[in-house]
Amino acid sequence: MSANKTHTPKSGSKHAAGDSIGGSGSPADIAADKVTKLRDKAAQQASHLADEARHAADEKVEDLKGQATSRIEETAENIRNAGHEFGHDSYQAQAADYLASNLTQAAEMIRDKDLGSVVEDLSTFARRNPALFLGGAALLGFAAARMMKASERQMTHPVITSDYKRPADPSMLVTR
Question: Which of 118, 127, 128, 149 has the most Cβ atoms closer than 10 angstroms to its Cβ?
Fold first, then answer.
């Protein structure tokens, strides 16, 4: 081949005009087509991953909502029982029943609504009743701290339930 001659692809070559890759067959058109296809594929994969992440987050939120409502209902029952310790017709029992019924309603609201609606309702309530909201937040904070402290104590000092009685005098221990 001389330097003046140019190489033109044969009609059977994969770079020939009108080939299966598309377009006019110029390298710029082929590259643009590949970029478009890769961009579309990446966007599709990103959308799929986002959908999977959203689904996983929704499942986690539902699980946490179930745990939260169970705890709230358990707390409501404990409050109700504590109030009845003062007598069923006492002021303390009435106040405990009122608080417990409100907690039960809150648990039902959390269970039945999506997270966005719960947050919106909570912020509306806080704006309308700031003192009650802050008091409730403080009460929940104290209750959470108490539960955490109690569970920490159980973890560090497990209660051993056994019929074994240790002798009062260490010299009474039998050694072999």
Answer: 118
Q: Does residue 151 fall inside a structural domain? A: yes
DSSP tag of 113 = S
Question: Quick check: 76 and 104 in contact, CB under 8 A?
Answer: yes
Closest CA relative to residue 75, chosen from 102, 95, 50: 102
Residues 54 and 98 in one domain: yes
Residue at a domain's end among 112, 142, 169: 112
Using DSSP, state whether 49 is helix, strand or coil: helix
**Contacts by 76-79 with C-beta closer than 8 Å and gap 24+?**
76/100, 76/101, 76/103, 76/104, 76/107, 79/103
Q: Is the pTM of this model over 0.70?
A: no
The two three-digit tokens of residue 40, written as one number: 């579309």
Please classify residue 99 by burial: count the beta carbons closer than 10 Å to its beta carbon, then call 0-12 exposed, 13-18 middle and 19+ buried: middle
> Could you give the CA distance from residue 81 to residue 79 in angstroms, rounded to a whole number?
5
- Token pair recorded at residue 34: 């590949």
> For residue range 116-147, what is the model confidence (pLDDT) as tens digits?
887 888 899 899 999 988 888 888 788 778 87
Count of domains observed in the chain: 2
Cβ neighbours of residue 8 closer than 8 Å, sequence gap 6 or more: none
Q: Is the distance from CB of 86 to CB of 92 less than 8 angstroms?
A: yes
Q: Is residue 30 part of a domain?
A: yes
- Note whether residue 3 is domain-resident: no
